[in-house]
Structure formats: C-alpha cells, structure tokens
Design goal:
The complex is a heterotetramer. Chain A is α/β, with parallel strands linked by helices. Chain A folds into 3 domains: 158 residues, Ubiquitin-like (UB roll) (Roll); 166 residues, Rossmann fold; 68 residues, no CATH class. In chain A, strands 1-14-13-17-15-16 form a 6-stranded mixed sheet. In chain A, strands 2-8-7-4 form a 4-stranded antiparallel sheet, with no helix packed on it. Chain A is globular. Chain B is mainly α. Helices cover 72% and strands 0% of the residues of chain B. Chain B contains 9 helices and no strands. In chain B, helix 3 runs antiparallel to helix 8. The model of chain B has no long low-confidence stretch (mean pLDDT 86). By secondary structure, chain C is an alpha+beta fold. In chain C, helix 2 packs across helix 3. By secondary structure, chain D is an all-alpha fold. Chain D has 2 domains: 116 residues, no CATH class; 159 residues, no CATH class. In chain D, helix 1 runs antiparallel to helix 2, helix 10 runs antiparallel to helix 12 and helix 10 runs parallel beside helix 13. The longest helix of chain D is centred in the N-terminal third of the chain and has 24 residues. At the A-D interface, helix 6 of A face loops of D.
C-alpha cells in the first residue's frame, strides 16, 4: 500500500537510532530550577510568588496573562530565591522564577479529577487551561485556545500527531510505546470536548513498533492509526492534515477552517494527567542526543531544569559542543549556552561537535530549483529570498512569503548553502511589521 | 486567408517591429521595467496602431491620392497619429490613473513613435489592401507587445542580479535587447514578406 | 495647393473636434498647485515626510492641508517654496543630521554568538536580540547603508555604520530602519555627541565594549551644563552644545566625540575639518583614534 | 558542474576521434579561453575568482561542441569572449545570465561569420588515412534542396546507425548522438537534470516532425532524421537543461521543452537557417522569466480539495 503523504518535502537521515531504543528515564532533580514565565505563545504569565516563599510541586507560581496565555506551576517543592529576568531559550532575558529545590518533591493538593465521559466540555477546557497545557510538539500554543473554535467553524475531525518527523527526536516515539494508555485517555477527553466524528493518529512509518502498539490499543475505539510516509516535514500541522484527510488549510487560515484540530501525542498525555489525575503540566519527555553527548537518552524532565543538568545526566559531553539546539535539528532553536532552562516546548536537546556542523560557504544561486521542489508550501523560496535581500517586500509578499511554514527544507537542500528560510523568516517579520504600521 | 495569416505571423515574429525593424525603441527601453506596465503600454500601442492604420489608410486613398498631394503624407499622418495619441492619453488618465502614472512621459511619446508612423508608411509602401493593413497593424502591435513583455520579464529578472556598477540600468538593458534581437534572428526567413 | 490646405485643414479640424469632445468626456481635475509643489520637491521619493513618494506628499499638502515643513531633505528653501505655493507662512526648523551613537565595531565590542544568515540588521536582531553583546550597539550589517537614499552612510571594514554629515539630509530613513535605535537625529550645528547607546551599568559595559559610556560622570563634572546622565548613559544637552568641549577630552573611554576633529576610526570620511563648520579651533585637527 | 563536464567527455572523445587534431584544438582553445576570460573579468571587477566551480570550463566545452571542427583559432576565442564576458559576467556572473552563454556565442558567431561557421569537414576517423574534405551537414543539404527544388534530396543519409554513432559532418557536438545520449542518461541517472525538459523537447520534435512527414514525405524528412542530425541531443540534454536559464517549476520546464521543440521544428522546416535548436533555446530562455511568472506552483492552501466541504 502506498503510504499517505503531502507534496514536496525531503528525506534527511532520521538519526533516531541513537535514542529510539532507550526507555524513558526520570531525570533527577537539580539544586535549582529556573522556571520562565513565558513558556507559551501569547502573553507571559504574571508571577504570584515572592522571594522567600515556599512552593510545592504543582502550585501556581504565575497566573495566566490573558485568553491566549496559561498559568505556570512550580515543578517541584522548594524556596523561591529570585524572580528576575534570566536567559531564556529565545536568547533574550525574560522574567523567570528561580526555585531552590529542597529535594522532598512534596506535591500541592491536586485539582479534583474529572470524568471525561460525563464532565461538561467547558469544564474540561477550563481544566486544560488551569493545568497550563500548551502544544508540546514545540510550538507551545495554548491548547485551550485551539480547542475553542468559534461556532461557525464546526470541527469534524481530530488528528493526533505522533509523526515526529524531526531527525534525532524520539520522545513521542517512546511515549507511544510506554504510555499509550495515557494518550488514549487524553484522546477521550479531546473527543468529548470537540464532539468529533473521526479521530486519526498519524505515525511515520519508521516507527513500526509504535504503529503496532497504538493500533492494538486503538482497536474498537473509533480511532484510526494512519501510517505515513517517512518524509520531513510530515509532522507540520497543515501537511499532516493534507496527508491524512486530503484537505488543504487555506492560505492564511487555521486547521479549524477545514474542520480539523491537530494535537500532539505529548499534549494528549498531559491532558490525561490534568483531567483524570488533576496534575498540572510540569514535566515532559525530551530526547537528549547528538554526537557530542556521551549517552543519548529519553528523559522525563521537569520544566526549568537547565540544559547543562540534562547533559550531565546523559554522561556529559565527549567533545566541546559546537552547536546546541533546543528542539529538532530542522526547526529547533540554536542556543547561546547550556545555562538555559528547559520549557514545556523542549522536545529535545541536541549537541553537535564541530565536525558534524556543516558550514559551507555561500555560493551563487544557479536556480537549480531544488528548494522549489522541496517546499511543502509550494512556494519559490529562492525567488522570495532574492526579493527579500533587495528589500522588495511587496514582491516577496506577492509570492506568498507569509505562507511559508519555516520548515527549513529549502535551506537544508540548497547546494549553494544560502540561508533561504532565515531570509524568508525575515521577510515575514518585515511584512507583518509593515502591516501593523498600516 | 493564408496571405493574411502570413502577414500576421510575419509581423509578429519574423519582422518584429522592435527586434527586427528596430522601430519603437523608445518605449521599448523606457516602459519595460515591469511586466504589468509593459503589458499596459503594449495594449495602448495596439489600440493606437490599429486605429492609426485604419485612419491613415482612408486618408491616403480618399484624400491624398485623389487630390494628388501624396507629398503631404508624413505631415498628414503625424497629425492624425498625434491626435489619436492625445485621445488615448486622456482616456488612460481617466480610466486607469495607475497605468497613466506608470507610463509617464512615454505615453505622449507614442505620438512621435516611429513604430506607429512606420506602420502607416509601410502599409502604403506595400500597397496593402484595407484588410491587409488592419491585419498588419494588429500583427505589428502584437509583435511590439510580445517584445515588450519578454523584455520586461528579462529586466525584472536582471533587477535581482549583481550587475557590475558600470553596466547597471540602461547599459545592461541595451545588451539584453541586443541578445533578445539576436534570438529573434532565428525567425529570419520563416515567412517571406 | 488649395486642395492641400483644405484637406489638411479639414483633417486638423476633425481631429481638434474629436479631441475637444474627448477632453470634456475624460476630464480629470488636477490642482495646478500639486504640480508646482512636485516641482520644488527633491524627487528622491525618500519618504521622510511619511508619504509614499514626493507626489503623494504634494497631493497631501494640497488636498489635506498637511504641513509644508515635512520635507526635511529639501531643507528650509523647499519648505518656504511649498509654503509660498500654498500661501501659508513657513515655520523655521533647525536642520537635522543623523548620528550613529556607537563606536563599538567588531574589534572593540564583544559578540554573543556568530551570526550566519541574511546580511541584514533587522534579520539578525530577531535571532536572540542580535549577535552583539551590547544591547544597544551597532550590528554593522549595513541595513541603514542600503536604506539611505543619499549614499551618506558607509560601513567601516570592522562593521560600524558611519554617517557623512555633508551628504546627510536628515530624512530619517536610517532611523526608522535601524532595529536597535542606534541612529539619532541631532541639530546640525551640534558637533559633539556621546557615541554610545548602552543603558547598562558601567561594569557591564566595560565587559563587552572598550568604547562604551560607563556613566562615570566625568563629562558632567567638567561641563555641567552640557551633559546629563540618564539611565547610565551620558547625553549632550544640545542647547548648550557649545560648552561640551571639556567633556570630550576627559572621557576615559573616548565615547564622546567632536565630529569637527574626525570621524570614528576606520571610516573613509575620517580626518580633516568639515568646511561647513565655522570657528573651528586652531588646535588638534588630526584624526582622533 | 563537474558531472556535466564528465557527461560530455564521451562526445568530446568521439569528436576528437572523428575530426582529429583540429577538433582537439578547438576544444582546448574554447575551454581555456572561457576560463581565462572568466578569471580576467572577476579580477577586473574585484570579485572572488571562482573558476574552480567549473562553470566556465563547461561553457567552453559546450561552445566548442557548437563550433565546426575546423574553426580558426580566433573564432574560438571570440566565441569564448562573447560567451563569458557579454553573456555572463556583465550580468553578475554565475547564476544570473538570462541566456545560455555558449548559445549566445554560437549565434553571434553564426550571424557574424556565416562562412567560417558553416564550413564542415567530413569525419575522417584517426587512422583511416583519408584526407579531410569539406562537406555539408545533412540538415543543410535538406534545407538547400527543399529551397531549390521543393523536395528532399534523394541521397539523404538514411543509415540511422551511422549517424547515431557518429559519421556525419557537423559541429563537434553534432557528430555522435550515441555519445551524447550516453552523457544525457548519466545526468538523468545522477539526477543532475530532471527528465522534464529533454523529454518534452525531444518528444515535441518527434510528434511535430512526424505530422509534417506524414503530410508530405517528399518535402519533409522523417522524425528519425530530425533526431539524429544537428544539435538536438546536445541541446535537449545539455543546453536547454541549463538550470540558470530554464524555468524552476516542473510545469514551467514542460512548457519550456515543448516551446523549444516547436521552435526547433519550425525553424528547421521553414526558417532561413538549417538548424534551429540554438535559436529555439535562446528564444525560450528569453521567455523563461515569463514562464516562471505565470506558471508558479499553486501555493499550498489555494486549492480547495474535494474533502474540504467546509465553506
């Protein structure tokens, strides 16, 4: 059978063998946690604790700052030693709560458990917001917003994203293998909230064990497991919807415009914890890998652990890392140092040695059109970039710069090593800035 | 019928007004920075050429020839063409101010555009019948538009090139026009006429 | 002969009638003042006035009664000319010139990381707030140089923007394009400026820049009228710029500079006096290092 | 770039074997000339000298392929100058030239020096002991005969195998279809070029010339003749597929190939020149920006799929 997929895309070596076989390990607590108040897209949370306060695991330390925002919880018990700007994965100094860990890890009173079969959808959505749940694939968009489509946009399909198309990352893979039931619980909650007719779980075909496992679990539950062709960016929301349902999210639109909601399997597991057990989101699974790490692992980490601590748990580094990436190698964010806290969106931490980091000199574009063929949004990356370089933003916009999903296929495939996606990202920001100006 | 088709094809490709006869170079270089304006200019010229061919044909055979004043041909034709262009200019300004802005000074310059006058004179020279004149005019105008649009496309692309400073602007445009004309040499002999 | 005159006259008459009719049908109202204003504007279409191009500004002046004083590149003469056309009085405005408030090029200031990507300051600023350790320093990727319609900005080989005061018309294009607000508009008569844009504390500044303002107060002690220190950064009070001299020599990090005595090092404008400046003191005309 | 040069080697070898020393001299002069002009230009413009990328050498080889084997030395050097300086470097160098440099040079030479450019030597394989004699290309003879008598000459080479392997007069690159095809297939296999342009180009030539042949076989040669003579293979696999001067989208490539084929046949059958491949490719080069402009891929999300019934 031909596997479902989308048009465009490419096949980077998936490099998952380093950590795919490693069961999830609990990461021990460090002495200090730096919990950023901005761990999601939208307004940052407002701190509600002061220096000297004792906090318990799961206690709210930052209140949500608006509708598109979620609260932040203490990942463990300890004493607040500072509320100040700290280096954030974005490279900026942003407000964070620093907690000295007492090691007891005593939990605050959990929220009441809800029964997904009987609870009101609105109560479930409130719970998801209170638990601070955001998209855990890396985008960190507040989940309750995604689950609240306006009434004129009926949702008939729920898609679970277990694709994990980024090379190296195996966190979702391990989660599906080890905690499949939790994911199913989360799916039940989502189905109750959305009232959908059809639920799909998309998994890339390079994870046959996860496909078998989830197929067995899902049988008889109105959930269809869809094996997908191994191709990057198969896990990008719009591409995933296209592959599974054949619907294309309109340009500038959202999945809800075609009646679909997509949720990451990690988010699903977090929802199950929040609803069935009343636990807020303070931990997640993250893959630590890359050739500079001694022992690649899949870790269950707490939010606020410094990247240096994660590396230490994985046996430290073999060589001086030349590149540190939070997230996947294609779309992740390069980090200035390891003194940065992990957040709810930290799906992975990759450390590469100098020899793995390919830095080719930029050459001239010879219009080989590899980027055009690879672009999953079917744009002309090199032409958009050429106009952007000359600051001709009208032309760049006309060519659809805003439809770019920033998957990085063009930069990856470019034989001339041009920074295409970086340039287009700049064009997008410049066009948006100009629109705001009016 | 075949004759008419041949005249049309010949005027568009083989004896392209711009690239083979080198008429109408001024708007060709002046208004070819963007494909859209080139297209607009092409349409304006198409209109002027067709109407000019009709009117000048009538003037030639119903006024100049009967009165034996063919020596006034040039003056009479320029007079008519100039008025026509004025007309088009007013219409464009009213109907499409954007195009009017983009065409700028080149719109009134169609007045003295050798392509239009050349067409009128060629029609008489080749002693085309009325129908042949009109077809020849349409062909010439389409050829002009084709050359304009092709050239504008090339120039839009050259805008993105790191052309050496001394060749920027008109210099590189002229080189490109030369190369384009070179390519059109391939049509030579395709249709005799 | 008669036939010639009559027939040509007839053709001309017919054409004239047709044109006359067309002129009535396709009449477009254009205010003659608009064309007159367009005439006196520089035609650079720089956008300093806030309108997309000179013709849009001319239209706005005539139709919306926008102030005639918005064309900074044209200077006082243009403003007066527009005011004359519109029949209003022109208020005088002091001509301005842009100044890059930074001397920390890639040799003198530290970098946080190596930036690889589009050569554009705004693009670099979006990557972890720019590669320069100083949050206010010039990124040196030349966005202002490309934005300047008058060719008044050059980048030194070590990555610092320097503005040629004679070519600068005060159009503010560079100010709006700079992501770090390094470029400021200053009165043209003032030649002494604090070339630093970092509001960090002195100890922090010292760590990442050799020529940053450390807010040591020495300039203020030497010329109390001419300087203020706000938020750990010294600033020249331009009303008293003529008294700023003593602060220049005493500044321990040489971040205060008098442009009469040269430009930041590495720029090709460096050295020599500006002919437009009168009363240049006798001493010290060499390039300040 | 290297792979394209590599793919051209068999054809070069056949040409040198068939035409002997003059062919080798032309090859060397063109290649050296191109590299020299490229380096000189880049020095003059104070840009980094990038002759190591192989693009100038490739242009040189392609240019030589487009010249008669007995070209005088100055013809080769002039061609190299036109190709590199006028057609490429003043547009900014590699990646920016709108027209294929080697073809521009060929057409400039063809128009300026028709005699030198159409003096062909009959192939005299090394060791055959034959003296070099001048001859006409099959396309040239076909054209002449049709012009004069309105019918094809009776003795047009019908030996398909011979012309396929390479014993007909013509430019260096028109000799052996077999060697060129070998190189072309190598490029396809290595995915240096995509199939769209060669297939649509050659396909159009076969279909169109086939139609004409069926209409009047006395006047129009058969498709096979079109395939194995002239520069069709060279053009379809090595010149039209030049990425810099051809469209970037697959749809655009197909249109480009069809356009090339159409113009080639029209010029060959009805035009003043016996060979139309180079003009056809140049004309389509000129149309490439427009093709790219109007045949962009449909952006993701602009097509409403059948499943998306949600208005």
């Amino acid at each position: 059978m031909r596997l479902k997929t989308f048009s465009g895309g490419l096949h980077p070596p998936d490099s998952k063998e380093f950590s795919a076989g490693c069961p999830i390990e609990d990461c021990p607590l460090p002495e200090e946690l730096v919990v950023p108040l901005s761990q999601h897209i939208g307004a940052p949370a407002k701190p509600v604790v002061q220096v000297g306060d004792r906090v318990l695991r799961g206690q709210v330390i930052g209140e949500s700052g608006g509708f598109v925002s979620v609260p932040v919880h203490a990942p463990t018990s300890g004493e607040v030693v500072a509320v100040e700007p700290r280096l954030h994965p974005s490279g900026r100094e942003l407000p964070a709560v620093v907690i000295r860990v007492d090691g007891e890890d005593s939990a605050a009173e959990p929220m009441s458990a809800l029964d997904p079969a009987t609870a009101e959808p609105d109560a479930l959505k409130d719970r998801i917001r209170e638990a601070g749940i955001v998209g855990m694939g890396g985008a960190t968009f507040p989940t309750h917003v995604k689950l609240s489509p306006p009434p004129e946009k009926p949702i008939d399909t729920l898609i679970l994203n277990g694709v994990e198309c980024e090379p190296f990352l195996t966190a979702d893979h391990r989660l599906m293998l080890e905690e499949g039931e939790k994911i199913l619980d989360g799916i039940a909650v989502l189905q109750r909230i959305l009232g959908v007719e059809k639920t799909y779980l998309g998994i890339e075909a390079n994870k046959p064990d996860a496909i078998d496992q989830m197929s067995a679990l899902c049988s008889g539950r109105n959930i269809e497991v869809v094996p997908l062709e191994v191709k990057y960016p198969q896990g990008a929301e719009k591409q995933l919807i296209c592959a599974i349902t054949g619907r294309e999210v309109p340009s500038g639109g959202l999945p809800m415009d075609v009646g679909v909601v997509v949720q990451n399997v990690g988010t699903c597991a977090a929802i199950a914890d929040a609803v069935l057990r009343g636990l807020p989101l303070v931990e997640r699974i993250a893959t630590v890998s890359g050739d500079a790490v001694v022992q690649p692992k899949n870790l269950r980490i707490r939010v606020g652990m410094s990247l240096a601590h994660l590396v230490e748990i994985c046996g430290g580094t073999r060589v001086e890392p030349a590149k540190i990436i939070m997230g996947g190698p294609m779309m992740g964010m390069a980090q200035l140092s390891l003194d940065v806290p992990a957040t709810r969106g930290t799906s992975g931490l990759l450390l590469f040695s100098e020899e793995k980091v390919v830095r080719r000199p930029e050459g001239p574009c010879i219009r080989c059109a590899r980027c055009v063929q690879a672009c999953p949004a079917r744009l002309l990356p090199t032409t958009i970039a050429a106009y952007t370089r000359l600051d001709m933003m009208d032309e760049a916009e006309q060519l659809g710069a805003l439809d770019c999903i920033e998957c990085g296929c063009c930069s990856y495939i470019c034989p001339a090593a041009l920074p295409l996606v970086q340039t287009i990202r700049h064009a997008k920001a410049a066009i948006m800035a100009r629109r705001r100006k009016g | 019928m075949v004759e008419l088709v041949l005249i049309l094809v010949s005027a568009i490709f083989v004896n392209n007004f711009v690239l083979a006869r080198f008429l109408g170079i001024c708007p060709f270089l002046g208004v070819s920075k963007k494909v859209d304006t080139a297209l607009g200019m092409g349409m304006a010229v198409t209109f002027v050429m067709t109407v000019a061919a009709v009117v000048t044909w009538f003037i030639q055979y119903f006024i100049l020839v009967p009165f034996n004043i063919e020596y006034l041909q040039t003056i009479a034709f320029i007079l008519v063409i100039a008025s026509l262009v004025q007309l088009v200019e007013m219409a464009v300004q009213k109907l499409s101010p954007v195009l009017y802005q983009a065409l700028g000074i080149f719109l009134p310059l169609i007045t003295t555009n050798c392509a239009v006058l050349g067409l009128a004179v060629l029609n008489i020279q080749k002693s085309y019948s009325f129908l042949e004149s009109v077809v020849f005019a349409i062909g010439a105008a389409l050829g002009f538009t084709l050359a304009m649009v092709l050239f504008a496309g090339l120039r839009e692309r050259i805008d993105l090139c790191p052309v050496p400073r001394s060749f920027r602007g008109t210099a590189i445009a002229l080189v490109t026009a030369g190369l384009l004309s070179l390519a059109f040499m391939g049509f030579a002999g395709l249709v005799k006429g | 002969m008669i036939a010639a005159v009559v027939s040509l006259g007839g053709i001309g008459l017919a054409a004239a009638l047709a044109l006359g009719a067309a002129a009535r049908k396709f009449a477009v109202e254009v205010d003659p003042r608009e064309a007159a204003i367009l005439e006196v504007l520089s035609g650079a279409n720089c956008g300093a006035c806030g309108y997309p191009g000179c013709s849009a500004y001319a239209k706005a002046v005539v139709e919306e009664g926008v102030s005639p004083a918005l064309c900074t590149p044209g200077g006082q003469a243009t403003i007066e000319a527009i005011a004359g056309i519109m029949g209003v009085s022109a208020e005088a405005s002091e001509p301005e010139v842009a100044v890059v408030r930074c001397q920390g090029d890639n040799r003198k200031a530290q970098l946080k990381y190596r930036y690889l990507g589009l050569v554009d300051c705004n693009a670099a600023q979006r990557v972890a707030d720019g590669p320069k350790a100083c949050p206010g320093g010039c990124l040196g990727l030349g966005s202002c140089e490309r934005a300047c319609p008058f060719g008044a900005i050059e980048m030194t080989p070590d990555g610092l923007a320097v503005i040629n005061r004679e070519l600068c018309t005060g159009c503010r294009k560079c100010v709006s394009v700079c992501p770090r607000n390094v470029i400021a508009m200053t009165p043209r008569s003032a030649t002494t400026h604090v070339l630093c844009n970092s509001h960090d504390k002195g100890a922090v500044v010292r760590k990442y820049c050799q020529v940053g303002c450390i807010a040591c107060q020495i300039c203020k002690k030497n010329a109390p009228e001419a300087y203020v220190i706000e938020d750990f950064l010294a600033r020249v009070v331009y009303e008293h710029h003529d008294q700023a001299g003593p602060g220049v020599e005493k500044c321990p990090t040489s971040c205060i500079r008098d442009f009469r005595f040269g430009y930041p090092e590495g720029s090709s404008f460096g050295g020599g006096e500006l002919p437009s400046e009168k009363n240049a003191p006798d001493e010290g005309t060499g390039t300040a290092g | 770039m290297r792979q394209v040069i590599f793919a051209l080697l068999p054809a070069c070898a056949v040409a040198v074997y068939m035409f002997g020393l003059p062919a080798l001299v032309t090859l060397v002069l063109c290649t050296a000339g191109c590299i020299g002009f490229e380096a000189g230009c880049q020095k003059l413009m104070r840009r980094p000298v990038a002759i190591a990328d192989g693009s100038a050498a490739l242009t040189g080889i392609l240019l030589a392929m487009n010249l008669p084997p007995s070209s005088p030395w100055w013809l080769s050097l002039l061609g190299a100058f036109v190709a590199i300086v006028i057609a490429k470097q003043i547009y900014g160098g590699l990646g920016y030239n709108p027209f294929n440099p080697a073809l521009v040079a060929r057409v400039v030479l063809l128009i300026s020096f028709p005699v030198q450019m159409t003096t062909w030597t009959a192939p005299t394989p090394i060791g055959s002991g034959l003296d070099a004699v001048t001859t006409a290309t099959p396309l040239g003879r076909a054209k002449e005969a049709v012009m004069l008598h309105g019918a094809l000459p009776a003795d047009l080479p019908s030996g398909f195998l011979g012309s396929f392997l390479g014993d007909i007069g013509g430019c260096l690159g028109e000799v052996s279809v077999f060697a060129l095809l070998l190189g072309g297939l190598f490029l396809l296999w290595k995915r240096v070029i995509s199939w769209h342009i060669p297939v649509s180009f050659v396909g159009t030539v076969i279909v169109l010339s086939g139609i004409f042949w069926l209409v009047d076989p006395q006047r129009y040669p058969d498709p096979l003749f079109h395939l194995v003579t002239g520069g069709l293979m060279l053009g379809a696999f090595f010149m039209a597929t030049d990425m810099v001067t051809s469209p970037v989208t697959t749809k655009g490539m197909l249109v480009f190939g069809v356009g090339c084929g159409l113009l080639t046949v029209l010029i060959r059958l009805f035009g003043g020149y016996p060979e139309g491949v180079s003009f056809a490719i140049l004309l389509m080069n000129a149309a490439t920006p427009l093709i790219d402009r109007y045949l962009k891929p449909k952006k993701f999300g602009l097509v409403q799929e059948k499943g998306g019934a949600h208005a």
